[in-house]
Amino acid sequence: MLRRYVPLFTVALLSGCTLTQADNQHEKTMQAINTMENRVNYQLATMIQQIDEQNEYIANLEKELSAISEELSRPPQPQPAPAPVYQGKKQDSVKLTDPAREAKVAHGKVILGEEEWVWLDSIQSFFKARVDTGATTSSLNAVDIQVFERDGKEWVRFNLNHAEDNPHAKPEIIEAPIVRWVKIRQSALEEPTRRPVIEAWLKLGQLHEKTQFTLADRSQMTYPVLLGREFFKDIALVDVGKKFVQGMNEQRIPTTN
Questions:
Q1: What are phi and psi of 139, to 5 degrees?
Q2: Whole-angstrom distance, CA of residue 233 vs CA of residue 213
Q3: Among 16, 170, 192, 202, which one is most buried in terms of CB atoms within 10 A?
């Protein structure tokens, strides 16, 4: 009788052990799953925080870029031009017009009056000049003209001093190579007069140009310098109703070789 129940007890005991081991394995599996789930949730939360920080950084960059673009799109503010300063002699003083009312440049060209102050680099001095729209070539006062040869080329030596400006001034001796010769017809003379032509650097307002001058005795004339069309064509406009528009620029420019 007892032998019949022994196998049953054995089977029941083994089944209980198997269930206990299964429960323990299930519990460990659930713990591992929970641990993994917590780890994934933590990593996901960290990634979300980093994405939010990057989005905020990008938004700030977009704001800065928008501000820079708006600043660049604004037109530049014009700077007021400094008022001209005249430091010439009292007898040569010229009443300068207000630059806000009197334009010195129009349509990209310098405005010249019938009379202007010019600066000659060769002798570092100012002279009064007449702007003559009827003359082709500019003319320069020259007395005691002497033609000589230097290095196989024709040169000329002359005195530029203008008695009307300063009768007691020392002679302004200039030497320059002769560029060419021109023939000038005068009503008082039957034969044309042959005159030398030289090149010299001249400054007038913001213009600083190398131009050709015909040498002539202008000691009896009002202006020692006459500016012809070859000097101001395409770069200046002449208003014969005005004088000394550009004024006297006291800034010295080194002589150009």
A1: -130, 145
A2: 15
A3: 202
Contact 202, 209 (CB under 8 A): yes
Which residues, 6 or more positions from 97, have their beta carbon under 8 angstroms from its beta carbon? Answer: 245
**Nearest CA to 116 among 225, 10, 22?**
225
DSSP tag of 229: H
Q: In what order do the strands lie in the sheet with 173-177?
A: 143-150, 153-159, 173-177
Mean pLDDT (10-residue bins), the chain, 257 residues: 56 57 76 82 80 82 76 62 42 41 74 91 88 90 92 91 62 89 76 89 89 89 90 86 80 46
Q: In terms of pTM, does the model score above 0.85? A: no
Kindly list the distances between the CA atom of residue 36 and the CA atoms of 25, 50, 179, in Å, as whole numbers in the listed order.
17, 21, 99
Taking the C-alpha atoms of residue 74 and residue 89, their distance in angstroms, rounded to an integer, is: 46
Q: Quick check: helix, strand or coil at residue 180?
A: strand
Which one, of 217, 211, 201, lies nearest residue 231 by Cα?
A: 211
CA distances from 225 to 13, 112, 187, 212 (A): 135, 15, 22, 12
